[in-house]
Amino acid sequence: MLKVIEVLAESNKSWEDAAQTALKTAEKSVRNVRSIYIKNFEASVENGKITKYRINGKISFVLD
Hints:
The chain is of the alpha+beta class. It has one helix spanning 15-26; strands spanning 2-11, 33-46, 49-62. The model has no long low-confidence stretch (mean pLDDT 96).
């Protein structure tokens, strides 16, 4: 059986780094992560440059 949790994460580098941050943080409290589905991408902009990359995703994992 799988369970899905919704996560939010951000990075100063990239959306990929934000997704890795979400995954690493989730793995501190859940085991057997199987996938991450990125539902939404967002960025903060200051002076014409992206300063923060944000993702909203769903992480699925196997229940013991």
